[in-house]
Write a structure and sequence with these properties.
heterodimer, A: mainly beta, 6-stranded mixed beta sheet, 5-stranded antiparallel beta sheet, 0% helix, B: 7-stranded mixed beta sheet, globular
């Protein structure tokens, strides 16, 4: 099955700086890569996703890049704010599969 | 609000007992997924149903079972509970059954086994 590795496990940034989280996946058939944000006591919230026919996608301060050849994808958060503090999960689904395989998560702390 | 509703939000029960967690998917979604989140295991896929039928099985214990009803709500039954079953259980839903469908999560049911 699909195996997703996520780095770093924790990330502390100064407010206003950028944060980057990187994930690698093992199954070259994976074609859908969502990112979820989980705040304390809440469920994972989809914040952005990218499909394998696209190399980059941006939504305001959040962007995701995908390198199919290297089998890795990254989340970029610019101009970080205190409300960006949360656990972020990357995930992947191989074509024809039904379940998300999650990375282990990155705890992001934005220092005021 | 993702539109996925889970009840109860919190549940405390004793070892050996049985509990049922309930999930209502987003309006129009036919697929329901169950995930378990514990501190040391991350988000683990348990099982998926599509329009009432089981579609995929993950790391679900034999003591656990699930079903999806004609109105598309789903229940996860956990029996002979052990201390290690304490975790957050998430339900998620998506419109279809194939890969590439956006999957939305509920707020979770926090189960504590004492």
């Amino acid at each position: 099955g699909e195996n997703v590795e996520q780095h770093p496990s924790t990330l502390s940034v100064q407010e206003g700086d950028s944060a980057v989280i990187k994930c690698t996946y093992s199954d070259s058939a994976s074609n859908y890569f969502p990112w979820y944000k989980q705040e304390l006591g809440k469920g994972p919230q989809l914040i952005i996703d990218i499909r394998s026919n696209v190399g980059e996608k941006k939504d305001q301060r959040i962007a995701v890049t995908l390198n199919k050849t290297a089998k890795h994808f990254s989340l970029h958060i610019t101009e970080t704010q205190p409300e960006d503090s949360a656990v972020y999960f990357c995930a992947a689904i191989p074509w024809g599969d039904y379940k998300l395989s999650f990375g282990a998560g990155t705890t992001v702390t934005v220092r005021a | 609000d993702s539109g996925v509703t889970q009840t109860p939000k919190h549940l405390i029960t004793a070892t050996g007992q049985r509990v049922t967690l309930r999930c209502s998917p987003r309006s129009g979604d036919l697929s329901v997924y169950w995930y378990q989140q514990s501190l040391d295991q991350g988000l683990q896929f348990l099982i998926q149903y599509y329009n009432g039928e089981e579609r995929a099985k993950g790391n679900i214990l034999e003591r656990f079972s699930a079903q999806q009803f004609p109105d598309l709500h789903s229940e996860l039954n956990l029996s002979s509970l052990e201390l290690g079953d304490s975790a957050l259980y998430f339900c998620a839903s998506s419109p279809g059954r194939s890969s590439g469908n956006t999957i939305y999560f509920g707020e979770g049911s926090w189960l504590t086994v004492v």
